[in-house]
Design goal:
Largest sheet: 8 strands, mixed
Protein name: Glycosyl transferase
Pfam families: Glyco_transf_4, Glycos_transf_1
Shape: globular
CATH architecture of the largest domain: 3-Layer(aba) Sandwich
Strand order of the largest sheet: 3-4-2-1-5-6-7-8
Strand content: 5-15%
CATH topology of the largest domain: Rossmann fold
Structural class: alpha/beta
CATH class of the largest domain: Alpha Beta
Organism: Frankia alni (strain DSM 45986 / CECT 9034 / ACN14a)
GO molecular function, one term: glycosyltransferase activity
Keywords: Glycosyltransferase, Transferase
CATH superfamily of the largest domain: Glycogen Phosphorylase B
Helix content: 25-40%
Number of domains: 2
Protein backbone atom coordinates (compact mmCIF):
# COMPACT_ATOMS: atom_id res chain seq x y z
CA UNK A 1 0.00 0.00 0.00
CA UNK A 2 2.66 1.21 -1.06
CA UNK A 3 12.62 4.56 -17.13
CA UNK A 4 15.50 4.34 -20.07
CA UNK A 5 17.03 7.74 -20.58
CA UNK A 6 17.36 9.30 -23.99
CA UNK A 7 19.90 11.76 -22.62
CA UNK A 8 17.29 14.36 -21.62
CA UNK A 9 16.86 15.42 -18.02
CA UNK A 10 13.77 14.71 -15.97
CA UNK A 11 10.68 16.62 -16.94
CA UNK A 12 9.20 19.26 -14.65
CA UNK A 13 7.73 17.79 -11.52
CA UNK A 14 5.80 19.19 -8.57
CA UNK A 15 7.17 20.03 -5.16
CA UNK A 16 9.91 22.21 -3.67
CA UNK A 17 12.93 22.33 -5.89
CA UNK A 18 10.95 21.47 -9.01
CA UNK A 19 8.58 23.39 -11.25
CA UNK A 20 4.87 22.66 -11.01
CA UNK A 21 3.40 22.69 -14.53
CA UNK A 22 0.88 25.46 -15.24
CA UNK A 23 -2.80 24.55 -15.08
CA UNK A 24 -3.89 23.43 -18.54
CA UNK A 25 -6.75 25.33 -20.15
CA UNK A 26 -10.26 24.02 -19.71
CA UNK A 27 -9.91 22.60 -16.20
CA UNK A 28 -12.71 22.57 -13.65
CA UNK A 29 -12.61 22.46 -9.87
CA UNK A 30 -13.56 19.28 -7.97
CA UNK A 31 -15.94 19.54 -5.04
CA UNK A 32 -13.50 17.86 -2.67
CA UNK A 33 -10.33 19.56 -3.83
CA UNK A 34 -10.62 23.23 -2.94
CA UNK A 35 -8.49 25.26 -5.28
CA UNK A 36 -7.35 22.20 -7.23
CA UNK A 37 -7.88 22.10 -10.97
CA UNK A 38 -9.17 18.93 -12.56
CA UNK A 39 -9.36 17.96 -16.24
CA UNK A 40 -13.05 17.64 -17.27
CA UNK A 41 -12.86 13.84 -17.72
CA UNK A 42 -11.57 13.22 -14.21
CA UNK A 43 -14.85 13.71 -12.37
CA UNK A 44 -16.87 11.55 -14.76
CA UNK A 45 -16.18 8.25 -12.95
CA UNK A 46 -17.33 9.79 -9.65
CA UNK A 47 -20.16 12.20 -10.37
CA UNK A 48 -23.31 11.53 -12.33
CA UNK A 49 -22.45 7.91 -13.12
CA UNK A 50 -24.84 5.07 -12.20
CA UNK A 51 -24.46 4.23 -8.53
CA UNK A 52 -23.05 7.62 -7.50
CA UNK A 53 -24.80 10.92 -6.85
CA UNK A 54 -23.46 14.47 -7.01
CA UNK A 55 -23.99 15.67 -3.44
CA UNK A 56 -23.73 19.37 -2.55
CA UNK A 57 -23.84 18.95 1.24
CA UNK A 58 -23.69 15.43 2.62
CA UNK A 59 -23.93 15.01 6.39
CA UNK A 60 -20.66 14.63 8.25
CA UNK A 61 -19.67 11.40 9.96
CA UNK A 62 -20.09 13.09 13.36
CA UNK A 63 -23.64 14.14 12.45
CA UNK A 64 -24.52 10.63 11.32
CA UNK A 65 -23.07 9.00 14.44
CA UNK A 66 -24.85 11.44 16.75
CA UNK A 67 -28.32 10.64 15.42
CA UNK A 68 -27.97 7.06 14.14
CA UNK A 69 -28.20 5.03 17.34
CA UNK A 70 -25.36 2.87 15.99
CA UNK A 71 -22.72 2.74 18.71
CA UNK A 72 -21.15 -0.75 18.39
CA UNK A 73 -20.08 -2.00 14.96
CA UNK A 74 -18.47 -5.35 14.20
CA UNK A 75 -16.21 -5.77 11.14
CA UNK A 76 -15.37 -9.18 9.64
CA UNK A 77 -12.22 -9.54 7.56
CA UNK A 78 -10.12 -12.42 6.30
CA UNK A 79 -6.78 -10.82 7.15
CA UNK A 80 -5.52 -8.16 9.52
CA UNK A 81 -3.20 -5.27 8.72
CA UNK A 82 -0.42 -7.09 10.62
CA UNK A 83 -0.69 -10.19 8.42
CA UNK A 84 2.47 -10.63 6.31
CA UNK A 85 0.27 -10.82 3.20
CA UNK A 86 -1.87 -7.79 4.01
CA UNK A 87 -2.57 -5.36 1.22
CA UNK A 88 -5.01 -2.71 0.09
CA UNK A 89 -8.10 -4.38 1.54
CA UNK A 90 -6.55 -4.50 5.02
CA UNK A 91 -5.34 -0.90 4.78
CA UNK A 92 -8.84 0.16 3.71
CA UNK A 93 -10.43 -1.57 6.72
CA UNK A 94 -7.93 0.04 9.09
CA UNK A 95 -8.50 3.57 7.76
CA UNK A 96 -12.29 3.28 7.99
CA UNK A 97 -12.25 1.65 11.45
CA UNK A 98 -9.85 4.29 12.75
CA UNK A 99 -12.10 7.15 11.70
CA UNK A 100 -15.20 5.45 13.06
CA UNK A 101 -13.45 4.97 16.41
CA UNK A 102 -12.45 8.65 16.42
CA UNK A 103 -16.12 9.54 15.88
CA UNK A 104 -17.09 7.63 19.04
CA UNK A 105 -18.08 4.24 17.61
CA UNK A 106 -17.03 1.07 19.44
CA UNK A 107 -15.44 -0.85 16.56
CA UNK A 108 -14.27 -4.46 16.73
CA UNK A 109 -12.47 -6.16 13.84
CA UNK A 110 -12.51 -9.96 13.80
CA UNK A 111 -10.04 -11.75 11.57
CA UNK A 112 -7.74 -14.76 11.29
CA UNK A 113 -4.53 -15.27 13.26
CA UNK A 114 -1.63 -13.04 12.22
CA UNK A 115 1.65 -14.97 12.64
CA UNK A 116 3.75 -13.55 15.46
CA UNK A 117 0.99 -11.31 16.81
CA UNK A 118 -1.27 -11.66 19.89
CA UNK A 119 -4.86 -12.84 19.69
CA UNK A 120 -6.24 -9.45 20.63
CA UNK A 121 -4.91 -5.92 20.41
CA UNK A 122 -6.09 -2.33 20.13
CA UNK A 123 -5.00 -0.37 17.09
CA UNK A 124 -5.91 3.21 16.20
CA UNK A 125 -8.75 3.20 18.71
CA UNK A 126 -10.48 -0.03 17.65
CA UNK A 127 -10.23 -3.62 18.86
CA UNK A 128 -8.70 -6.40 16.78
CA UNK A 129 -9.62 -10.00 17.63
CA UNK A 130 -7.72 -12.71 15.78
CA UNK A 131 -9.22 -16.19 16.02
CA UNK A 132 -8.93 -19.33 13.88
CA UNK A 133 -6.66 -20.12 10.98
CA UNK A 134 -6.39 -18.89 7.43
CA UNK A 135 -9.37 -20.91 6.20
CA UNK A 136 -11.16 -21.96 9.39
CA UNK A 137 -11.80 -18.29 10.20
CA UNK A 138 -14.82 -18.32 7.87
CA UNK A 139 -16.92 -21.13 9.43
CA UNK A 140 -15.73 -20.30 12.96
CA UNK A 141 -16.70 -16.63 12.63
CA UNK A 142 -20.09 -17.52 11.17
CA UNK A 143 -20.75 -19.99 13.98
CA UNK A 144 -19.73 -17.48 16.67
CA UNK A 145 -21.97 -14.86 15.09
CA UNK A 146 -24.94 -17.22 14.83
CA UNK A 147 -24.57 -18.17 18.51
CA UNK A 148 -24.29 -14.54 19.58
CA UNK A 149 -20.84 -14.99 21.10
CA UNK A 150 -19.46 -11.75 19.69
CA UNK A 151 -22.41 -9.41 20.18
CA UNK A 152 -24.75 -7.80 20.53
CA UNK A 153 -23.80 -5.33 17.81
CA UNK A 154 -25.70 -2.38 16.36
CA UNK A 155 -24.21 -2.94 12.92
CA UNK A 156 -22.03 -5.34 10.96
CA UNK A 157 -19.60 -4.83 8.07
CA UNK A 158 -18.52 -7.95 6.22
CA UNK A 159 -15.48 -7.71 3.96
CA UNK A 160 -16.00 -10.33 1.25
CA UNK A 161 -12.47 -11.05 0.07
CA UNK A 162 -12.87 -14.04 -2.23
CA UNK A 163 -14.47 -16.34 0.35
CA UNK A 164 -17.53 -14.82 2.08
CA UNK A 165 -18.59 -15.12 5.73
CA UNK A 166 -22.25 -15.64 4.62
CA UNK A 167 -23.49 -12.96 7.01
CA UNK A 168 -26.97 -12.85 5.38
CA UNK A 169 -27.56 -16.35 6.79
CA UNK A 170 -26.83 -15.63 10.43
CA UNK A 171 -26.50 -11.87 11.12
CA UNK A 172 -29.62 -10.19 12.47
CA UNK A 173 -28.31 -6.64 12.91
CA UNK A 174 -28.11 -4.02 10.13
CA UNK A 175 -25.20 -4.82 7.84
CA UNK A 176 -23.37 -3.93 4.66
CA UNK A 177 -20.80 -5.92 2.68
CA UNK A 178 -17.62 -4.50 1.19
CA UNK A 179 -16.67 -6.41 -1.97
CA UNK A 180 -13.56 -4.80 -3.44
CA UNK A 181 -13.55 -6.84 -6.63
CA UNK A 182 -14.51 -10.19 -8.15
CA UNK A 183 -11.70 -12.75 -7.77
CA UNK A 184 -12.46 -14.69 -10.97
CA UNK A 185 -9.17 -16.00 -12.45
CA UNK A 186 -7.31 -15.25 -9.22
CA UNK A 187 -8.45 -18.60 -7.83
CA UNK A 188 -6.47 -20.49 -10.50
CA UNK A 189 -3.44 -18.28 -9.97
CA UNK A 190 -2.99 -19.13 -6.29
CA UNK A 191 -4.68 -22.49 -5.64
CA UNK A 192 -4.48 -26.03 -6.94
CA UNK A 193 -7.03 -26.87 -9.65
CA UNK A 194 -9.34 -28.65 -7.17
CA UNK A 195 -9.29 -25.88 -4.60
CA UNK A 196 -9.60 -23.25 -7.32
CA UNK A 197 -12.76 -24.97 -8.53
CA UNK A 198 -14.18 -24.80 -5.01
CA UNK A 199 -13.39 -21.09 -4.79
CA UNK A 200 -14.95 -20.37 -8.17
CA UNK A 201 -18.07 -22.36 -7.33
CA UNK A 202 -18.55 -20.52 -4.04
CA UNK A 203 -17.95 -17.08 -5.58
CA UNK A 204 -20.03 -17.47 -8.73
CA UNK A 205 -22.77 -19.96 -7.80
CA UNK A 206 -23.15 -20.59 -4.06
CA UNK A 207 -22.72 -17.14 -2.50
CA UNK A 208 -24.57 -14.72 -4.83
CA UNK A 209 -28.11 -15.95 -4.09
CA UNK A 210 -27.56 -15.27 -0.38
CA UNK A 211 -26.44 -11.68 -1.05
CA UNK A 212 -29.14 -10.56 -3.48
CA UNK A 213 -30.88 -8.44 -0.84
CA UNK A 214 -27.68 -7.12 0.75
CA UNK A 215 -26.23 -3.64 0.33
CA UNK A 216 -22.90 -4.21 -1.44
CA UNK A 217 -20.23 -1.50 -1.35
CA UNK A 218 -17.35 -1.51 -3.80
CA UNK A 219 -14.50 0.85 -4.65
CA UNK A 220 -15.03 1.72 -8.30
CA UNK A 221 -17.55 1.87 -11.10
CA UNK A 222 -15.61 -0.74 -13.06
CA UNK A 223 -15.74 -3.17 -10.13
CA UNK A 224 -19.45 -2.43 -9.75
CA UNK A 225 -20.01 -3.41 -13.39
CA UNK A 226 -18.08 -6.67 -12.90
CA UNK A 227 -20.07 -7.55 -9.77
CA UNK A 228 -23.30 -7.04 -11.71
CA UNK A 229 -22.17 -8.93 -14.79
CA UNK A 230 -20.17 -11.77 -13.24
CA UNK A 231 -22.03 -12.39 -9.97
CA UNK A 232 -25.48 -11.38 -11.17
CA UNK A 233 -26.23 -9.19 -8.15
CA UNK A 234 -28.95 -6.51 -8.54
CA UNK A 235 -27.54 -3.13 -9.66
CA UNK A 236 -29.85 -1.26 -7.28
CA UNK A 237 -28.07 -2.85 -4.29
CA UNK A 238 -24.50 -2.03 -5.31
CA UNK A 239 -23.00 1.30 -4.24
CA UNK A 240 -19.62 2.84 -5.01
CA UNK A 241 -17.50 4.30 -2.21
CA UNK A 242 -13.99 5.11 -3.50
CA UNK A 243 -10.99 4.72 -1.19
CA UNK A 244 -9.18 7.69 0.29
CA UNK A 245 -5.60 8.88 0.25
CA UNK A 246 -3.62 9.65 3.38
CA UNK A 247 -2.83 13.38 3.58
CA UNK A 248 0.85 12.51 4.10
CA UNK A 249 1.09 11.76 0.37
CA UNK A 250 2.05 15.14 -1.07
CA UNK A 251 4.58 16.38 -3.61
CA UNK A 252 7.93 17.58 -2.20
CA UNK A 253 11.59 17.59 -3.09
CA UNK A 254 12.97 16.82 -6.53
CA UNK A 255 12.61 13.96 -8.95
CA UNK A 256 15.39 11.43 -9.33
CA UNK A 257 18.11 12.79 -11.68
CA UNK A 258 17.80 9.57 -13.69
CA UNK A 259 14.57 7.92 -14.83
CA UNK A 260 13.09 6.07 -11.83
CA UNK A 261 10.14 3.66 -12.12
CA UNK A 262 8.43 2.39 -8.97
CA UNK A 263 5.98 -0.49 -8.46
CA UNK A 264 4.31 -1.41 -5.16
CA UNK A 265 2.34 -4.52 -4.24
CA UNK A 266 2.31 -8.02 -2.82
CA UNK A 267 4.59 -10.39 -4.70
CA UNK A 268 1.81 -12.79 -5.66
CA UNK A 269 0.61 -14.08 -9.06
CA UNK A 270 -2.34 -11.70 -9.51
CA UNK A 271 0.03 -8.71 -9.47
CA UNK A 272 1.92 -10.20 -12.46
CA UNK A 273 5.34 -8.91 -11.41
CA UNK A 274 6.92 -11.38 -13.84
CA UNK A 275 5.16 -9.54 -16.66
CA UNK A 276 6.14 -6.21 -15.12
CA UNK A 277 9.82 -7.23 -15.03
CA UNK A 278 9.63 -8.07 -18.74
CA UNK A 279 8.24 -4.59 -19.34
CA UNK A 280 10.95 -2.95 -17.27
CA UNK A 281 13.63 -4.83 -19.20
CA UNK A 282 12.09 -3.58 -22.45
CA UNK A 283 12.01 0.02 -21.22
CA UNK A 284 15.60 -0.21 -19.97
CA UNK A 285 16.76 -1.11 -23.49
CA UNK A 286 15.74 2.41 -24.58
CA UNK A 287 16.75 4.19 -21.36
CA UNK A 288 20.05 2.67 -20.13
CA UNK A 289 20.28 5.00 -17.09
CA UNK A 290 16.85 3.95 -15.82
CA UNK A 291 16.42 2.52 -12.33
CA UNK A 292 13.44 0.51 -11.08
CA UNK A 293 12.34 -0.33 -7.53
CA UNK A 294 9.70 -2.94 -6.65
CA UNK A 295 8.30 -2.57 -3.12
CA UNK A 296 6.52 -5.46 -1.41
CA UNK A 297 6.83 -8.99 -0.07
CA UNK A 298 5.27 -12.28 -1.05
CA UNK A 299 5.93 -15.91 -1.80
CA UNK A 300 6.87 -15.22 -5.42
CA UNK A 301 9.96 -13.26 -4.40
CA UNK A 302 12.50 -16.09 -4.95
CA UNK A 303 11.29 -16.68 -8.50
CA UNK A 304 11.27 -12.97 -9.29
CA UNK A 305 14.80 -12.57 -7.93
CA UNK A 306 15.90 -15.50 -10.11
CA UNK A 307 14.32 -13.83 -13.14
CA UNK A 308 16.15 -10.57 -12.42
CA UNK A 309 19.50 -12.36 -12.01
CA UNK A 310 19.00 -14.30 -15.22
CA UNK A 311 18.42 -11.03 -17.09
CA UNK A 312 21.54 -9.46 -15.56
CA UNK A 313 19.36 -6.60 -14.26
CA UNK A 314 20.36 -6.65 -10.59
CA UNK A 315 22.37 -3.42 -10.83
CA UNK A 316 19.36 -1.28 -11.77
CA UNK A 317 16.24 -3.33 -10.86
CA UNK A 318 15.79 -3.92 -7.14
CA UNK A 319 13.30 -5.83 -5.01
CA UNK A 320 13.45 -3.97 -1.69
CA UNK A 321 10.74 -5.84 0.25
CA UNK A 322 8.58 -3.91 2.65
CA UNK A 323 9.63 -0.34 3.40
CA UNK A 324 8.50 2.09 6.07
CA UNK A 325 6.09 4.94 5.34
CA UNK A 326 8.83 7.54 4.98
CA UNK A 327 10.76 5.51 2.42
CA UNK A 328 7.61 4.74 0.43
CA UNK A 329 6.72 8.43 0.37
CA UNK A 330 10.24 9.29 -0.78
CA UNK A 331 10.02 6.74 -3.60
CA UNK A 332 6.67 8.10 -4.78
CA UNK A 333 8.06 11.65 -4.79
CA UNK A 334 11.29 10.80 -6.62
CA UNK A 335 9.76 8.45 -9.19
CA UNK A 336 9.11 9.59 -12.73
CA UNK A 337 6.38 6.97 -13.16
CA UNK A 338 4.53 4.40 -11.04
CA UNK A 339 3.64 1.21 -12.88
CA UNK A 340 1.44 -1.86 -12.38
CA UNK A 341 0.84 -4.98 -14.46
CA UNK A 342 -1.84 -6.34 -12.09
CA UNK A 343 -4.52 -8.63 -13.49
CA UNK A 344 -7.24 -7.67 -11.02
CA UNK A 345 -7.77 -4.81 -8.57
CA UNK A 346 -10.66 -3.21 -6.75
CA UNK A 347 -9.00 0.15 -7.21
CA UNK A 348 -5.21 0.39 -7.25
CA UNK A 349 -4.39 2.38 -4.13
CA UNK A 350 -0.69 2.70 -4.91
CA UNK A 351 -1.67 4.50 -8.12
CA UNK A 352 -3.56 7.25 -6.30
CA UNK A 353 -1.01 7.45 -3.50
CA UNK A 354 1.67 8.15 -6.09
CA UNK A 355 -0.69 10.51 -7.91
CA UNK A 356 -1.06 12.55 -4.72
CA UNK A 357 2.73 13.03 -4.91
CA UNK A 358 2.41 14.22 -8.51
CA UNK A 359 3.62 10.95 -10.02
CA UNK A 360 1.66 9.64 -13.02
CA UNK A 361 1.20 5.97 -13.78
CA UNK A 362 1.44 3.43 -16.57
CA UNK A 363 -0.81 0.48 -15.75
CA UNK A 364 -2.81 -2.35 -17.25
CA UNK A 365 -6.36 -1.56 -18.35
CA UNK A 366 -8.34 -3.63 -15.83
CA UNK A 367 -11.32 -3.02 -13.56
CA UNK A 368 -10.20 -0.73 -10.76
CA UNK A 369 -7.30 0.75 -12.72
CA UNK A 370 -9.80 2.39 -15.08
CA UNK A 371 -11.08 4.43 -12.12
CA UNK A 372 -7.78 5.06 -10.37
CA UNK A 373 -6.28 6.24 -13.69
CA UNK A 374 -7.98 8.66 -16.06
CA UNK A 375 -6.38 7.45 -19.27
CA UNK A 376 -4.39 10.18 -20.97
CA UNK A 377 -5.02 12.69 -18.16
CA UNK A 378 -3.46 11.20 -15.00
CA UNK A 379 -1.57 8.31 -16.54
CA UNK A 380 -1.68 5.81 -19.38
CA UNK A 381 -3.59 2.51 -19.47
CA UNK A 382 -2.19 -0.37 -21.51
CA UNK A 383 -4.57 -2.82 -23.17
CA UNK A 384 -2.01 -5.60 -23.71
CA UNK A 385 0.39 -6.24 -20.78
CA UNK A 386 3.04 -7.14 -23.37
CA UNK A 387 3.03 -3.46 -24.43
CA UNK A 388 3.77 -2.18 -20.93
CA UNK A 389 7.50 -1.72 -21.56
CA UNK A 390 7.02 0.12 -24.84
CA UNK A 391 4.50 2.48 -23.22
CA UNK A 392 6.76 3.07 -20.22
CA UNK A 393 9.64 3.95 -22.53
CA UNK A 394 7.45 6.43 -24.40
CA UNK A 395 6.26 8.20 -21.26
CA UNK A 396 9.80 8.40 -19.89
CA UNK A 397 10.95 10.00 -23.13
CA UNK A 398 8.30 12.73 -23.19
CA UNK A 399 8.87 15.48 -20.60
CA UNK A 400 5.83 17.50 -21.68
CA UNK A 401 3.54 14.46 -21.45
CA UNK A 402 4.79 13.61 -17.95
CA UNK A 403 4.29 17.22 -16.83
CA UNK A 404 0.69 17.18 -18.08
CA UNK A 405 -0.03 13.78 -16.53
CA UNK A 406 1.53 14.93 -13.26
CA UNK A 407 -0.83 17.92 -13.08
CA UNK A 408 -3.81 15.69 -13.80
CA UNK A 409 -2.69 13.09 -11.26
CA UNK A 410 -2.44 15.70 -8.50
CA UNK A 411 -5.88 17.06 -9.28
CA UNK A 412 -7.50 13.62 -9.46
CA UNK A 413 -5.94 12.53 -6.16
CA UNK A 414 -7.24 15.66 -4.45
CA UNK A 415 -10.81 14.37 -4.81
CA UNK A 416 -10.28 11.33 -2.53
CA UNK A 417 -10.11 11.38 1.28
CA UNK A 418 -10.39 8.68 3.93
CA UNK A 419 -12.76 10.96 5.84
CA UNK A 420 -15.23 10.77 2.95
CA UNK A 421 -14.73 7.01 2.57
CA UNK A 422 -15.50 6.47 6.26
CA UNK A 423 -18.49 8.83 6.14
CA UNK A 424 -20.05 7.30 3.04
CA UNK A 425 -19.57 3.75 4.34
CA UNK A 426 -21.24 4.63 7.64
CA UNK A 427 -24.04 6.41 5.79
CA UNK A 428 -24.78 3.17 3.94
CA UNK A 429 -24.95 1.30 7.26
CA UNK A 430 -27.28 3.98 8.69
CA UNK A 431 -29.65 3.56 5.74
CA UNK A 432 -29.65 -0.21 6.19
CA UNK A 433 -30.47 0.24 9.88
CA UNK A 434 -33.39 2.51 9.00
CA UNK A 435 -34.63 0.08 6.38
CA UNK A 436 -34.50 -2.79 8.87
CA UNK A 437 -36.37 -0.76 11.49
CA UNK A 438 -38.86 0.45 8.91
CA UNK A 439 -38.36 3.97 10.21
CA UNK A 440 -37.07 7.29 8.97
CA UNK A 441 -34.83 8.53 11.77
CA UNK A 442 -33.05 11.89 11.48
CA UNK A 443 -29.84 10.01 10.71
CA UNK A 444 -31.52 7.99 7.98
CA UNK A 445 -32.96 11.14 6.41
CA UNK A 446 -29.51 12.73 6.54
CA UNK A 447 -27.88 9.64 5.06
CA UNK A 448 -30.37 9.68 2.23
CA UNK A 449 -28.97 13.02 1.13
CA UNK A 450 -26.37 10.97 -0.72
CA UNK A 451 -29.02 8.82 -2.38
CA UNK A 452 -29.92 5.18 -2.19
CA UNK A 453 -27.84 4.45 -5.28
CA UNK A 454 -24.55 5.93 -4.05
Amino acid sequence: MTAPSNGRGPGPGPGPGATIPPTPAGLILPQAGAGTAVPPGILAPQLGAPGIEDVPRPPSLAELVETSGLRRVHVLAWRDLDDPESGGSELHADKVAERWAQAGIDVSLRTAFAPGHPESVRRHGYAVVRKAGRYSVFPRTALSGALGRTGPWDGLVEIWNGMPFFSPVWARCPRVVFLHHVHAEMWRMVLSPKLAKVGETVEFKVAPPFYRRTRILTLSQSSRHEIIELLGLPPRNISVVPPGIDPAFTPAGERSPHPLVVAVGRLVPVKRFDVLIDGLLRAHDEHPTMEAVIVGEGYERPELEKKIRAAGAGAWLRLVGRVDDDELLSLYRRAWVLTSASAREGWGMTITEAAACGTPSVATRIAGHTDAVVDGETGVLVEDPADLGKTLAGVLSDDDLRARLSAGALAHAATFTWAETARATFAALVREAARQRGSASPAARAANVIGQRR
